[in-house]
User: Fold this.
Amino acid sequence: MSNSIDTSSYSVKPANRTENATDSHPESEVNQAVEVAQDPPNILIVDDNPTNLKVLSGVLEKAGYRVRPALGGSAALKTIDRLLPDLILLDIRMPDMDGYAVCERLKSQGETASIPVIFISAMDAVEDKVKAFDAGGVDYITKPFQFTEVLARVNTQLSLSQTRRELESKNEALAEARDFLEERVQKRTADLNHSNVQLTVALAERDCAMALTERQKNLYHALSEINLSVLRLDNPGALYQAATRIAVEFAGFDRAWVICWDEGASGEIRADYAGKTQIPVSMNQELSLIRNENSVLQEQQYRIFQRACHAAETTGVVGDTSGDSEAELMSIAAFPLFFDRVPIATFNMCTLKPDMFDGEIIALLNQMSGNISYGLTNYARDRAQQQFNAMLQKAVSGMGGATGKVYFERLVRYLAESLDLEYCAIALLDQARTGMMTSVAFVEEGRLAPNFSFPIAGTAAEAVINAGSVTYPKDVASLFPEDQWLRAHQVNSYAGVPVRGREGAIMGVLSVMSRNHFDLSPILEGILELFALRLGTEYERLQVEEALRNNAEELERLVNERTSELQAANQELESFSYTVSHDLRAPLRALDGFSAALIEDYSDQLDEQARMYLGFLQESSAEMTALVDGLLELSRSARSELHVD
Assistant:
């Protein structure tokens, strides 16, 4: 156990003053606060003597420190795990774990190794102090001690600890600054190296630009001519002719041609331009027999077209024909052309000149082909927009103010005629039969055909309901083998959009069909969706009208029923009134007659009060008779016809 502290001999010296202070009782003299920041230092006092803990805690708290006491070494380690102190005052002799072991444990762990530890002990032997310093202590105070000494040593060690942390922070900042400067130097060096490379490249490009050959000038002239032709485009055929002419006259090829390909491996020459160089007869035969499956030229051209069909962007194919007896060397190239992002053709060139297709001319030909495709795409969009506007205008004028069934029939007839298709149908979900649809308007071969019902499962209409708008350009009957109607009418292509209500629920399908190949463009799909929206609105309007009509009929039926009930009740009431009136007249006449007879025959035998009572009886009978006569008159007037003057 540690020695107890004699508190009567302690005095306090202010921690931040240089002048001497008079020693006195700690409870009255310890009144100085340590200059601290907003969060004062946290000091842990470890001792197994509660009196020592209380005294030291009071002194340090009055000096402005935050103090946590720990009764023994094990308790100290537990509280340190919860919150790290800024300094530890540690007793040596403790029963559970001595101060040396506690200090060694703290110094062996990274988080607690830097916490300063001041040993406080009654053991004043030199070997005890050496052992304390070997364990990691920074100072040693012997008991009994002066409070001023404790405060001074605590303040000193906290200052040293703060200085050490500041030095470590500055060292870290210096290291970061050194790393930052080193990174800046490396980046600047890399930038300078990159600038040197760019400068070298720029100088090389300038030298190349200054040494433009006549051939390069012609190539760029060809590109400029292509761009002008694109700007003046009024039909694809004229652009094809201009491109082949420019490729020969300005780019230096011996022959150029454009082939438009269909869905098979056959193509059609849309433009062909030959220069002054005599092309071998075999090449002319290749061009005239472009559908020949054994043609090397045809195979190369169609191969690039197939590649274009599977990729949004692709470069051309360059190859050599071999085995030609009339030409030792013939180089050809084929580049894809796109029409509204769909590959439709190849732009082809051939030459007898060696080394014609270097990297520069390949890049130029790719750019030329891209510009031609751009012109074709804009042309397609302009034409589609014009078609869209014309169809809408015709629809507005053709539909007029039609509504209901008339509107449905006019719409399917108009769509079939405008799109030049054999079939157009509006089919709505059958409300009475789940899984069934019923057509409300159907045109076949230009004529309105009878409506019909069909199960939804396995049909193209089911695909529309599940996926939204769909387009099947070909072989739609094979995609839906359960749709017997498609197979029976030999439908090859199909396009459908859902008919939706205001809440977005699908009410039916608007579809167009053809026996031939038909690919619905985005513009035409937009037209169908617009009409489908109008159909949904019209169908909902019809449903509201039908509901209103049904409600009116039901209301009229209820009114008629109620009127009949009231009439029957009135008749019963009239009959009852008439019967009751007749039944009351007889007793009233008897009462009146007998009253009169009594007055006439026995007047002399009756006293004045009896005659008065008989008079009252006659008057009441007369009044009652008048009421009965009134009821009879009312009954007769209710049964007679009412005339208004």
Notes: The first strand starts at residue 42 and ends at 46.
